[in-house]
Amino acid sequence: MEITTGWYLVLGALLFIIGGTGLLIRRNPLVMLMCVELMLNGVNLSFVAFSRTLNDIGGQTVVFFVLVVAAAEVVVGLGLVVAILRRQPGATADDLSLLKG
Amino acid sequence: MVDTLVFVVAALICLTGALGVVLARNPVHSALMLVMTLFGIAVQFVAQEAHFLAAVQVIVYAGAIVVLFLFVIMLLGVDRAQNLEMSFLPIQKWAALLFATGSLAIVVALIVVVGEPVTGAEAMGGALGGTDDVRLLARSLFSDYVYAFELTSLLLVIAVIGAVVLVRKPKLTDPITAGDGGAK
Predict the structure, then answer these.
(1) What domains appear along chain A, each with residue ranges and CATH number?
(2) Cβ–Cβ gap B124/A56 under 8 Å
(3) Which of A49, A92, A75 is nearest to B83 (CA)?
(4) Mutation test of the interface with chain B: which of A16, A44, A55, A75, choosing the one with the most B Cβ atoms within 10 A?
């Protein structure tokens, strides 16, 4: 059986779906951030698969930028989680609706 | 044959790790399962001749981001098992179910209907050249995407400053000297 680009795209889509579902059902903010990482990795896999198939380095360059943005997102997200959990230990995502008014 | 084997094994590792991230009750187990997924993705990158990205994936994700996660978990002491069956918001469970089944149905439909998904369009940003992907990536990054690259540095500076501001403890104001602080 030949592994075509479609298989890589399916794997990327499955990772994206699992990450998105986890983002919706988990309430621990740390695990939610990890699920965002899963979604980003699924997209990265699709970019690299297209880069290989279309013979274009641009896909890999985009993956590089996604890595940087993911690192920045984790830094700010974990900073928020630390600031919130220090004030209110054991807070879940549902307890963070203070700004709702 | 070897390609197929590598793909199947790495895909199983990825999917097992991803399900582990979502289903593990202990956040530490979630973080370790995330490492498993990231290594599987790195194997897929190597299989598609993106060697530099595979190395960066392991170094940045597994080496920095997951360590940061584990550090925060241990710092906050939230490494207790958490019950997955805790009270959901009313529509939360149904929204998750709808998202999962809907997007899965879209993927299956795409496999069945489209078959070969790639358009075969011409390369715009420079062709891949065998094993020399670091040189090509650098040339692309510092020519076509140089403004985006500079903006990335700005983003990282903002992220660092934001993290410092967010995590800093508010300074205790001394009631005696706080009054004349604004006069200077």
Answers:
(1) 5-91 (1.10.287.3510)
(2) yes
(3) A92
(4) A75
Give Dmax (Cα) for chain B: 78
Say if residue A101's pLDDT is above 70. Answer: no
Pairwise CA distance, residues B62 & A41, whole Å: 12
Asked whether the beta carbons of A8 and B3 are under 8 A apart, the reply is: no
> Is ipTM > 0.95 here?
no
Span B1-12, mean pLDDT?
90
Residue with tokens 């439909």: B109
| Helix or strand run (H / E) with residue B72 | helix B66-76
Chain A neighbors of B96, CB-CB under 8 A? 21, 24-25
Nearest to A18, CA basis, from A43, A40, A35: A35
Q: Where residue B183 falls among pLDDT bands split at 50, 70, 90?
A: very low
User: Are the beta carbons of A74 and B34 closer than 8 angstroms?
Assistant: no
Tokens (6 digits) for B141: 């990054």
Angle between helices A58-87 and A29-54 (to 10 degrees): 180
